[in-house]
Specification:
binds FE2/S2 (inorganic) cluster, 3 helices, alpha+beta, about 180 residues
Length: about 180
């Protein structure tokens, strides 16, 4: 009877001795553990990559604000192009105070030029013209130039922040977008 059982097991391909059967189980167990280890490594790697993406350690955005010097560096009734190239801003001083215009055309974003003799900004791309206040005189530009926030620092310099913009008549002449001379004394 025992012989018949051994023959039957051999016929089904099962190992004849107990040691071989244990070896087969160990290999399966090893492969199962290896699979889980690979999966766990993949998951941990994915989570770490996602966290790394969410918290970049390098900020490529340039700062939006900068100090533009002392108020008396700017003559009354002038448009200063001193910061146009480096900061893309014109500093305008009127008899009443200061504002900073963002040198970006509201049509497609080109940089207009200031023409002192005509007292206007002209965009070289499609011909939009703007007044000293930033209003559209003609051209495809759909709205006035934007003004950047302007304030005075503790050391008496103008502080311009392109991170805050305004171009609506009324709103742009007050608050953070116009610095009256009284605040410059
Ligand atoms: S980008 Fe200035 S007119 Fe088109």
């Amino acid at each position: 009877m025992a012989n018949e059982t051994a023959v039957a097991q051999s016929a089904q391909g099962a190992p004849a001795c107990g040691g071989g059967f244990v070896g087969e189980l160990s290999r399966k167990e090893f492969l199962r553990k290896l699979g889980w280890a690979c999966f766990a490594t993949y998951m941990v790697g994915s989570v770490l990559a996602m966290l790394r993406f969410m918290f970049p350690n390098v900020l490529y955005e340039p700062p939006t604000s900068f100090k533009a010097g002392k108020p008396d560096e700017y003559p009354i009734n002038s448009v200063s192009t001193k910061w146009t190239k480096s900061k893309r801003v014109w500093v305008v001083r009127t008899p009443k105070g200061f504002y900073a215009l963002w040198a970006r055309c509201t049509h497609l974003g080109c940089t207009p030029n200031w023409f002192e003799s005509e007292r206007r900004f002209k965009c070289p791309c499609h011909g939009s013209n703007f007044t000293m206040q930033g209003d559209v005189i003609f051209g495809p530009a759909p709205k006035p130039l934007y003004r950047a926030a302007i304030a005075k620092t503790d050391d008496g310099q103008l502080l311009i922040d392109k991170g805050r913009l305004e171009n609506r008549p009324g709103a742009r002449e007050r608050g953070d977008f116009f610095l009256p001379h009284a605040e410059n004394a």
